[in-house]
Each structure stands twice: as C-alpha cells, then as structure tokens.
Amino acid sequence: DAMVIQNPRYQVTQFGKPVTLSCSQTLNHNVMYWYQQKSSQAPKLLFHYYDKDFNNEADTPDNFQSRRPNTSFCFLDIRSPGLGDAAMYLCATSRARGGTQETQYFGPGTRLLVL
Amino acid sequence: GENVEQHPSTLSVQEGDSAVIKCTYSDSASNYFPWYKQELGKRPQLIIDIRSNVGEKKDQRIAVTLNKTAKHFSLHITETQPEDSAVYFCAASTAFMDSNYQLIWGAGTKLIIKP
C-alpha cells in the first residue's frame, strides 16, 4: 500500500559523478516536491512541480535539476555531487498547493553518500 | 517572507507526563499549520494539523492549539509513551495558489521520553 515510493533507498556515488534519484506516487496528486534533509535539520525545499509547472527555490544550486515526465514520476538529478550534497533526499506529494488539500505526504527518502 | 521559530530544541519528559512544543510564525496571512513526527532514519509523518479558522484540534493524546492574534501554535502530547520519542517539526504555509507557495518549517524539537 506504499503511496510515495523512492528508489534507491541508499545511493553511494563518487565526487563529481552524476546521480539520479527517483520518486513515484500512486496517489495521483498534482504536486510533487523534492527536499534535502541533513542530520538534525528541517527538510529544505529544493523545488516542486505543480502538474507540469516547475518551481525552483531561489537558493537551490544549479547543480540540482528535476524532471517530471508524467503525473506519477519525478526525478532528481545531481549533475556533479560534492561532499556537501550528502544528505537524505525526500520526495513528497500533495493534492494541491493550498486550500484544504495541501497536506504533504512523504516518501521514505534516499540517503545519498558522496565519496 | 514567513519565518517559523520552534522551541525547545530538545525536550526530555518522564513517561506518562505531558509534553508541549511551541512555534511562532511571522506572516499573519499563514493559514495552515501541520505538525510532523520524524523517527530516526524515517520519513516525516503528519500527526495533526490545524487551519486558521479553528483554535484547537484534538486527536486522542495529541492536540494542537492556535493563537492567531499572538501568531503562535503549540503541540500538546499527554500521557507520553516511549514510542513518542522522535523529532517533531512544526510548519506554516500561506495558501497562495501560485509559484510562491511554500511550507515553512520550524527547526525541530527532539523529544525524549524517559522510562
């Protein structure tokens, strides 16, 4: 009954080697979010899609890109991972961005390790 | 923009006692306030939320109160149990139906339940 699925759960990459994290959802929600969470900190929003409309946070590094080929899937691409990019990456979905349907549901996360 | 402050950063209570976590926000237009619980290594999970048209909401041992005038909201957990040990995040959002929408997170409170 998984609703927000993230793959892989653990990812090890080398410094500078591109990596792609994936997220899928069975909720048919319009909005998908990517967050970065470092130890003991609150999740930090990187960007979100409202349907096909991409919204980038002002302080998200250019090194991070995202794709949403359809309603169910969303990808996070890190073009040249640095040591500072090691973190938990959380995908979340919501039916809408506001009103009564903005509750966000999180996937289990992908823990990225950069060597 | 919105700013959310959360206190305390760590809270240690005896099993069976009550725990209270407080958050303040800066944007009077914020109207949705969720609370998330995150256990170590797991995803944030919504435990309760409140909208600005109500002052209090309760779900079994968990309650949230909202004071719009003072711009603060609190999480109350009664009869605490060991499984309540986790990091709790408050958040606030403004229901802008445009690309400026964002859920602003507090820094988190680590709740420790002592046996």
Can you describe what's shown?
The complex is a heterodimer of chains A (115) and B (115). With 115 residues, chain A is an all-beta fold. Chain A has no helices and eleven strands. In chain A, a hairpin with a 5-residue loop joins strand 7 and strand 8. Chain B is mainly β and 115 residues long. Chain B is built from no helices and eleven strands. Chain B has strands spanning 4-7, 10-14, 19-25, 32-38, 45-51, 56-59, 62-67, 72-77, 86-93, 103-105, 109-114. In chain B, the strands form two sheets. In chain B, strands 2, 4, 5, 9, 10 and 11 form a six-stranded mixed beta sheet that branches. In chain B, strands 1-3-8-7-6 form a five-stranded antiparallel beta sheet, with no helix packed on it. The interface between A and B is medium-sized, with 22 and 25 residues.
Total beta strands of chain B: 11
Q: Helix coverage percent of residues of chain B?
A: under 10%
Strand content of chain B: over 45%
Total E-strand runs of chain A: 11
Rounded mean pLDDT of chain B is 92
Rg of chain B, Cα atoms, Å = 14 Å
- Could you list the spans of chain B in which at least 5 consecutive residues all have pLDDT below 50? none
For this structure, the quaternary state is heterodimer
Largest interface, counted by CB within 8 Å of the partner chain's CB: A-B, 22 and 25 residues
What structural class results from the helix and strand content of chain A?
A: mainly beta
How would a textbook summarize the main sheet of chain B? 6 strands, mixed
> What is the structural class of chain B?
mainly beta
